[in-house]
């Protein structure tokens, strides 16, 4: 099985990649560093290049996709949190879905967080397109708010 994993350079993504490699799967790791495909997921053009690299390496077919890349609430820029945790996740899932649909018994996993339950989708500033205002009002808690909002968004997207 060929499985692409974002966030494979550290943490949960690295542990998942190692376990799946040990089980005999072909893993395509995607991360900012320490990966088969190194990419800054905050950059839309770089994400597109990463998708092309995954498609080339996989022959256009994926059996699995694990979207694990993410940053936590300690990141000082809430927009960066949303870009990585939400926008990059959705962009890669959308772009790689055709390759995934060609796989044998394909599966996709998006790693979220219990923080996703801290707000309702209808109250999520991402859903409303009001992130800048909401994060500005959150002050010192903008990172935590962005983290919860981004994880909530990927559970609904």
Tell me which CATH architecture applies here: 3-Layer(aba) Sandwich
Order of helices and strands: EHEEHEHEHHH
What does the average pLDDT come to? 96
Q: What's the number of extended β-strand segments? A: 5
Question: What is the CATH homologous superfamily assignment?
Answer: NAD(P)-binding Rossmann-like Domain
CATH class: Alpha Beta
Low-confidence stretches: none
Work out the strand percent.
Answer: 5-15%
Which characteristics define this entry?
157 residues; alpha/beta; Rossmann fold; 50% helix; 13% strand
Describe this protein's structure.
With 157 residues, the chain is α/β, with parallel strands linked by helices. It has a single domain (2-113), classed as NAD(P)-binding Rossmann-like Domain (Rossmann fold). 50% of the residues lie in helices and 13% in strands. The chain is built from six helices and five strands; from the N terminus they run βαββαβαβααα. The protein has helices at 11-22, 44-58, 78-101, 125-128, 131-138, 142-156, and strands spanning 2-6, 26-31, 37-38, 64-67, 107-110. Strands 3-2-1-4-5 form a five-stranded parallel beta sheet, sandwiched between helices. The longest helix has 24 residues, at 78-101. It is elongated and about 45 Å long. The mean pLDDT is 96.
